[in-house]
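Researcher: Re-running this chain for the archive, since the previous output was lost when a drive failed. Same request as before.
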Amino acid sequence: MKKKIRVGMIGYGFMGKAHTNAFRQAAKFFPDLPYEPELKMFCARNEQRAKEFAENWGYEKVVTDWREVVESDEVDLIDICAPNNMHRDIAVAAAEAGKWVLTEKPLSLNVEQGEQMVAAVEKAGVPNMVWYNYRRIPSVTLAKNIVDRGSLGKIFHYRANFLQDWTISADLPQGGEGLWRLDLDVAGSGVTGDLLAHCIDTAMWLNGSIIEVSAMTETFIKEREHSLTGKVQKVGIDDACAFLAKFENGSLAIFESTRYARGHKALYTFEINGEKSSISWDLHDLHRLKYFDHGDESIVRGWRDIHVTDGDQPYMDKWWVPGLNIGFEHSFTHGVADFLASVDSDKKAQPDFRNALQTQKVCEAVINSGKSRQWVKTNVEL
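Model: Regenerated structure tokens:
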């Protein structure tokens, strides 16, 4: 019989829904898991909205102070879906209380706070993970398997972008409940920590350490009204960022992200070019992986389109029959399953806090490079 693991979630919104759905589905589709999540306590500052969320998703109890969740004897696992500036305080307190800790990406507001979070969970010896969910989209996991078996040969290039268009209007305010990602003090950075963090995590998972970066950033709209104060204030985040990078294995990279690419809502792509083969992936077709193998006979050589739905491909044996797709939400279910399966194992689910700290280091190096207009070393330790 599975052991119940009682979940306390702090924060809601888009990610609260994604995480909660994953907690509800994981044990059903991964029946061999040693633990089954139980939705015990939900916390948000707006009590009415918190009650509505909890009732809809099945949480047993609602509170408005995150400390109540952390200190509760009824909760085993803390899931942090709060804004970035709250991650450190909640995670450290949760670790000191002996709770398992999951947090949304990025790990923290900055590297200093991330290091404090790593120290706290490692001192307490509690299981921990950061929700970099794109690793667990089956086609991306398949790309990892292809790279790890050496099919690409020596890797020369990595390129990735993450493009959106939702902040173009100058009338859009910054700060507050729905727009905290535009507030530097709350978010820590703009597209670098929000979008490029995903690209960086995936890149280092697939291709190893990024050791040096050279970036340019831009804030297109210099001032916005703040939702909480009503005052027009300077915008401190990066609206767009592009950077060059060097990997430890000698390969070169180009990364780009913006919220000003009109017509793109969530265009995330990556491509890796090796001496033998190349692979390419697009979030818009997340169930497909494109693969080019130079070893194919010349008359049939070309890019192939792999439809990742068969039971011998990553995670797909847990879902439907071959040919039927799964979606974005399933990557979070895979994250819960991997985390719970790893708790009693020597091989912990990744990225844990220490691994995610390396992405934080790259993000901070990118921001610093954008300011200095110089190459900056990342000090990544994978």
